[in-house]
Amino acid sequence: MITVAEINDIDRIDNFRLAWRSLLGKTKGVTFAHSPEWLEHYWDHFGKGLKLRVLLITLGNKVIGIVPLVVKPVPTKMGTMRVLTNPLDGWGTFYGQIGSNPAATMVTAMRYLRNSKRDWDLIDIRYIDQEGHDHKRTSNAFRSVGFQGSQAVWQQLPMVNTLDTNWTSYLESRSKQTQQSIETAEQVITEAGQVAFYRSRLEDPSTPGWSPRWDIWSEFEQMNFTLGNQTTLAGGNDSQSRKLAFLKEIHAPAVRQGMARIDALFINHTLAVCAYGLQHAEGTDYLALGHRNDVPMEAVTALIARMIQQSIHDGEHALNLALLSPQLAGEWKNQCKNSYRCSHFPVTVPRSQVLRINRWMQEPNLKNNASKMAVTRKPDLNLKHTKDDHSKIEILAEAPQEWDDENTSRSNGNHNGDRPKFRIVG
To answer: Is the pTM of this model over 0.90?
Structure first.
């Protein structure tokens, strides 16, 4: 018999770590964000005001699937809405259920949510890789239990496809202005002194001399993370210090799992520009790009050019710069992908129906949703900030005043008595 175990206390995650990690190896499109370590650090840094709802799908005494979810308060013109969604918040490209049978996992999770007490005003599952691994499993699961399963593009992702090209072909696909910009950048940094490119390599943590390169990190976190007037840090609207603290926390476990990536440009043996990302089977998602204030801005262009060239040489699938800045990524892209959202607006919540109509009126035309190749123009480091057109409901890690404070410190061990922290439901 298939049952659902719900975890509402982050400390309970440790009891299922082995089962969770076993399922990661069977999950298509798995990233570090699917790991229990990610969720624990995410909760420590961004969990205040949120409600944790991790659904463990069990068959007998065996966990066969996991659906990590959180309930977030979302300020709107009609008041605060409680949104059931993914714990990702702009730190990744795609996200989904964990396990070897995603269809059964999602159907069981949706059935459980339909039959359990509702503590949300709408469901908004984002970052769905519909064209890659999901294949409408999420929307079908919604509809199978009577939810609407309204689908829309969540983000349009400018990517650098490094698998189906070589460096010469990639350069030839750029405009004359872009080629000139790369050439100028090379000349500028060469005149500045001795130049070296570094990329971290995957190593067994048990290997003698293994190091997560904290020496580079200590310099990296002191860098300037802006290009023009835009921040080159993923993770939404949180402060730079808060986001860097989070990245520092996840770095060691990401390195141990072989998923951390550091790309750096040294000028005269001194770290000048550095990019940090998380690797996965489909490529690398870059989460931070920093530079020293006293280096020429052409060094950023030179680093990105070397990153692309190295990934082509290594046979890596793709580089994703869009989490840093969609504008920056657009200058280097040769491919576009879409991530999707799937939503349910309960008819018993009038405000959610108003939001549903609003989204229907504002969503872009989704007919042209296939990945396409595109020639780009000159990289422009004088970036202008534009609001994400798809963020019709912006998620904020801030609890409304009428909520009880259910987020307790991991150190004090106190639990709210309104709701059992762990329960099995048939």
So the answer is: no
